Amino acid sequence: MSSKNVEVLLLAPDLLGESLALQLSMEADTCTVRLRPEQLNQHPCLVIWSVDEQIGFGALRRELLQLNERWQPAPVLLLLPAQLNLSEDELLQLDCPGLLQDPDLPSLREAITTLREGGRVLRLRQSAGPQPSASTPAATLGLGQWLLVSGLQQISHDLQVIESLLNPPPEHLLLRLLLEGRCRELRSARNLLLWLWGPLQVGLVDAVPLGQQSRTILEEGGDSHHQASTAITLRERNATAVWTAIQERLQGAVNAGLGNGTGSLLAMEGLNPERRRDLLLALLQQLDQVMARLRREEMEPEDLHAAALTDSWHALQPQLRRQALQSMTGSYVRLPQGDSLQPVTESLLTQADLQQADEELPDPRRMLDPLVLDQPVLVDGQLLPAHHPRALLQLETLVSNWLVRTAELISGELISACGDWPELRRYLLNQHLISTRELERLRNQLNHQNRWQLWIQRPIRLYESRRLLYRLRAGRIEPLILVEPRDSELKQLGWWQQQVALLLEARDAIAPQMQALVRTIGDLMVVLLTQVVGRAIGLIGRGIAQGMGRSLNQRPAGRG
């Protein structure tokens, strides 16, 4: 790529612009940098704009629109300061191929190269915008709910600390037993709080709407409380490049280690950390092969009907799960069972039921249409191309939800298979689950939780038009509540689940009348206590006071 036959327009204050132009010109492969439009000898290949700290969102959007219209088709690269009075959601709404916050010189050079090749770059080093004050939750939730949420957050924080101390488990047996006991106490306290006081959306700690999912993506080497960032790099603007970026981000999250921030028990927690990581990476690899296979279909995109794509996706799921299970356990691993060595993979594939479907998974077309057919994504009422940062982050959430739920399905089958195969526990499960009692306790807890979610929580979510998703964020698996119409699923519920929905509907119907009745009774009691009882007590007290006054003022009669 030639360096001096193309030009870059740099719009920045004089001192900063001259310094950047000098540093970029020192590179052999860097374009010629111009600081003024009148200095250009030809149409620029790239426009770089250094944004002032005090600019507002409206002014920034208008200026960016004018730059795009004037210098089209040259992409625009925005350079943001470290401190900016704009939220991350506002920055993601900007129609800008390049967005860098407080970049260093190597990152800037890499971004210039990527944009010149037709790619897209987004790198926000810190959470933009002012931080909410400590009084904000109390003002929006009320004192009781704020205390509940604060307690849940404190319990979640303590659980994370203890889980980090237990990974790997300490060698001292007494310390390990104390930490495990403390974990059980904290989980029991959290479940009791949620059962007594917490609605579903309060129990999901740190859950936010899908449109705000870009917050606090942990960058490699960062701190979730101080160095939150969002980093996206696309070499091309097509479906393949978007899927590659999502796959790389999820692989990095899995390799960094994932904690449980869902507020509920996960079957994956029973697996050995190494096996858990192998399972998630194997599912990602198999999903990549499925995506490639769907793209290699002989039909053209306009002839590939949505129904055919969905049918192909569902037909490939059992095979995908089998391949992921085989990749995790190893094709040639044999373990003793009774008096002989048994192949682990073949035995597990024979026992495991990998045909079952997860009814909580959203419509696969929302994920497949953009990633296979390169169709736009609907985000907050806007149709955005798949390479747009907001669309990419939404697709990443859908893929991570599929990844976690599929891994949960396979993990549940593995834990069930380990019940009759003691040697398999040493190979697949955590050390504390080698005990038959601990393993059966985990299985009972998982079965109870699944029944509760199926019979109670799922009808409630369907009636409230909510869907529970899982995403990988900040080194944890975290819940996310998505509001969407689910009327068709609500009509397909069984008898018992329909009764739960009817109870909710009856409560909503009776609640206004009950509130009016309680309010009327309360007003009546106020009238009785103040106008009748209060006045009567006042009259009695006044009479007693007057009687006592007369007796005190009356002098004793003298003797004659």
Layout: helices, strands, pairs:
Layout: E1 7-11, H1 14-25, E2 32-34, E3 46-50, H2 57-71, E4 76-80, H3 88-92, E5 98-101, H4 105-116, E6 120-124, H5 136-141, H6 143-165, H7 173-196, H8 200-203, E7 230-234, H9 239-255, E8 259-260, H10 273-295, H11 306-329, E9 334-337, E10 340-343, H12 344-351, H13 365-372, E11 377-379, E12 382-384, H14 389-418, H15 422-428, H16 436-463, E13 466-473, E14 476-483, H17 487-491, H18 495-553
Parallel strand pairs: 1-2, 1-3, 3-4, 4-5, 5-6, 8-14
Antiparallel strand pairs: 6-7, 9-10, 11-12, 13-14
Please provide a written account of the structure.
The protein is an alpha/beta fold and 560 residues long. 55% of the residues lie in helices and 11% in strands. The chain is built from 18 helices and 14 strands. It has helices spanning 14-25, 57-71, 88-92, 105-116, 136-141, 143-165, 173-196, 200-203, 239-255, 273-295, 306-329, 344-351, 365-372, 389-418, 422-428, 436-463, 487-491, 495-553, and strands at 7-11, 32-34, 46-50, 76-80, 98-101, 120-124, 230-234, 259-260, 334-337, 340-343, 377-379, 382-384, 466-473, 476-483. The strands form 4 sheets. A 7-stranded mixed sheet has the order 2-1-3-4-5-6-7, with helices on both faces. It has a 3-stranded mixed sheet with strand order 8-14-13. Strands 9-10 form a two-stranded antiparallel sheet. The longest helix is centred in the last third of the chain and has 59 residues, at 495-553. The chain is globular.
